[in-house]
């Protein structure tokens, strides 16, 4: 037992998604299928964008980074969950739990900020086309990327710092299949009202403001394209619709989890499963199916390597 920082708990027991063995086998098969699609799908998007000079534009630069974030995000929860399906005792050390929590918020908020940057890119491209090359120059794109990574890192550090200051002296059972802020805070052997308030204000308010800002920006964009030509209007609406779908799929579960008091609801695990396992798969599928340029380049790349 480690008594540093008043912490005597050195490991947490994950209760998992379900205690039914049959259900666990079924979930293992389903999650494995999702996981085996997530990685190739995102890697294929990255390779396609990097290999085709026609996709050398800020939109595709950010799309490639989004695919990278999705692929990285899929490593945080899914591999361990697949192993735990066949583990009699699902144990995660205190340090591993904090590490998982850090990367969950680091990559999750990084993706959230990236969607904001992509909305800004679309606004400039559609509403200020004559200034697009200047505003969204390669230097600006890299600066925006660096800013979102630094912002996500700062956010994740705050989450970890608040958790590390809490004493854990038992019990040590997490009613989930991974470590996240709401479940971990509940196990602290102290009054956590202030910490919960800070967490909700930090996570929930940030998520909600980004969500509302994105909806407002895409509403403005869709309103502005009404005067464009039919071809330009169709392409802009298709791109914005794709982004809006991703926004709802990502922010819906996040708002449900982080903008309310840390109370337990029966659907929490289902929402968490969707947010951590299923959602990363949907990004490449939606973008590939709705973006003709990426789809054409992807088919060309696969044919070049004799995949089909």
UniProtKB/TrEMBL annotation:
Alphabetic keyword roster: Cell membrane, G-protein coupled receptor, Membrane, Olfaction, Receptor, Sensory transduction, Transducer, Transmembrane, Transmembrane helix
Transmembrane segments: 25-47, 59-78, 98-120, 140-164, 205-225, 237-258, 270-289
Gene Ontology cellular component terms for the protein in this record: plasma membrane
Localization, UniProt: Cell membrane; Membrane
GO terms of molecular function: G protein-coupled receptor activity; olfactory receptor activity
Pfam family, one: 7tm_4
Its membrane topology: Multi-pass membrane protein
Cited InterPro entries: GPCR_Rhodpsn, GPCR_Rhodpsn_7TM, Olfact_rcpt, Olfactory_Receptors
Keyword Cell membrane appears in the UniProt entry: yes
Record domain G-protein coupled receptors family 1 profile: where: 41-287
Assigned protein family: Belongs to the G-protein coupled receptor 1 family.
PANTHER family noted in UniProt: OLFACTORY RECEPTOR (PTHR48002)
Protein name per UniProt: Olfactory receptor
Species assigned in the record: Urocitellus parryii
């Amino acid at each position: 037992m480690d008594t540093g920082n008043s912490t005597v708990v050195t490991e947490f027991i994950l209760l998992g998604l379900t205690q039914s063995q049959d259900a666990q086998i079924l979930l293992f098969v389903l999650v494995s299928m999702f996981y085996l699609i997530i990685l190739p799908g995102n890697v294929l998007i990255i390779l396609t964008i990097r290999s085709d000079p026609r996709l050398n534009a800020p939109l595709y630069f950010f799309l490639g980074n989004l695919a990278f974030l999705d692929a990285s995000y899929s490593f945080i929860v899914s591999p361990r969950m697949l192993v735990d399906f066949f583990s009699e005792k699902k144990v995660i050390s205190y340090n591993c739990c904090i590490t998982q929590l850090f990367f969950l918020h680091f990559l999750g908020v990084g993706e959230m900020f990236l969607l904001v940057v992509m909305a800004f890119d679309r606004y400039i491209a559609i509403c200020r086309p004559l200034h697009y090359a200047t505003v969204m120059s390669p230097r600006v794109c890299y600066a925006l990327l660096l800013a979102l990574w630094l912002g996500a890192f700062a956010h994740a550090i705050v989450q970890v710092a608040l958790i590390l200051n809490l004493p854990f002296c038992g019990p040590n059972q997490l009613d989930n299949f991974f470590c996240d802020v709401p479940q971990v805070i509940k196990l602290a052997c102290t009054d956590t009202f202030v910490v919960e308030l800070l967490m909700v204000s930090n996570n929930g308010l940030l998520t909600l403001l980004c969500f509302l800002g994105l909806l407002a920006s895409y509403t403005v964009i869709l309103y502005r394209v009404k005067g464009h030509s039919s071809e330009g209007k169709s392409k802009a609406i298709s791109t914005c619709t794709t982004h809006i779908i991703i926004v709802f799929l990502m922010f819906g579960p996040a708002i449900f989890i982080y903008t309310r008091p840390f109370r337990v609801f029966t659907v929490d695990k289902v929402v968490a499963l969707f947010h951590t396992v299923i959602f990363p798969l949907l990004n490449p599928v939606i973008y590939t199916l709705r973006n003709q340029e990426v789809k054409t380049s992807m088919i060309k790349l696969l044919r070049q390597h004799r995949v089909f």
